Amino acid sequence: MKANTKFVLKEFLRFIIYGIITILLLLLVFGVTHLDFVQNGNIPENAITEILQEILIFISAGIFAYLAYKENTKGLWLVAGFLSCMFIRELDILFDMIFHGAWKYIAIPLAVFFIILALQSGIQPVIDDMACFMKKKSYPFLVISLLLLLFVSRIFGSIHLVELVSPKNCQYAMKNFMEEGLELFGYLLLFIISCFYYYEYRIKK
């Protein structure tokens, strides 16, 4: 079999696998969010959807912190720190019990802590480690997951956008589902990509 034929078949198979994974993730998202709507009529802060999001981001941050420690890759402390701050942001409902916006006063010192960890040996090792991190095959998928979480879920969960396409009596439910559903999909993708990074750093050597 010619090299180009093998390459095309391999990429076609990869596309099929990615498609199956996407469908399975969407089914999981629909299942979890549907369960929350059945139980609560929406997706509150203490819903299964939210709890699963928090578990996924916590594990993902832990994976990169573990890799930074075991592989002595200073740059990965920045990745772990960024994801840890995202985790703190997801727990804002708990910190709001202290006062509104209290999560920021936890996230900022945490970010400083991880930056100090990363820069212990100077900035050049961090740059070298980040270059290696960005050259991994998993990196484009990590970027996609973060774009989903930081931008797409916020845009599709905007009440102004929902008002354009949804009847008034359904607007909050639509906003709630679009934002939290997309966030859950993004966190599931982020978790899977974090596991792939673990494979690339620790197993595929």
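The record above closes out task 2.4. Task 2.5 opens with a second protein, given below.
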Amino acid sequence: MADVIPAQAPGHSNGASGLTDQETVALIELMFFAYRDFVSDPDEILAQFGFGRAHHRVLHFVGRDPGMTVQQLLDILRITKQSLGRVLKELIDKGYVYQKEGESDRRQRLLHLTAAGDALRQRLMGPQMERIRRAAALSGGGAAQACRRTLYNMVSPANRAAVRDWIERASVLGDEAGKRG
């Protein structure tokens, strides 16, 4: 099978990447198509509940870091407090998320998933995990690491350390939760 992106596409090479404009545009388009398909399975599941992608993101991040604050979630999602408030209210009212008072600061609201919220999170993540695993297997050895580096380097330089710290911390939290469950 021919490569989706030709090794030497004609056009102007731009900078240290060595990519031509044509290759760069093709990668942008592949990113659009990959994202469209990556979210399609969860979108179908979410529609059954009357939820959207913001609900999915809340379920994902709260599930990865139980006890996170609303402010921490706002920092990750970069949506307005009003938008997050609406989404959280729906998830709380429908029994997918609950809030606890902070131990050191009772004004804090620490977010957690209910059993139903965790089950929905797992259901949403399942097809995405399968898609990532299938793509990595089809791409050959080292592809997952190369993709990880590429995605990480697409994050704005000012945000990379925070993203790296989040992923490392959430991975540890996920490992601990897996041992308990």
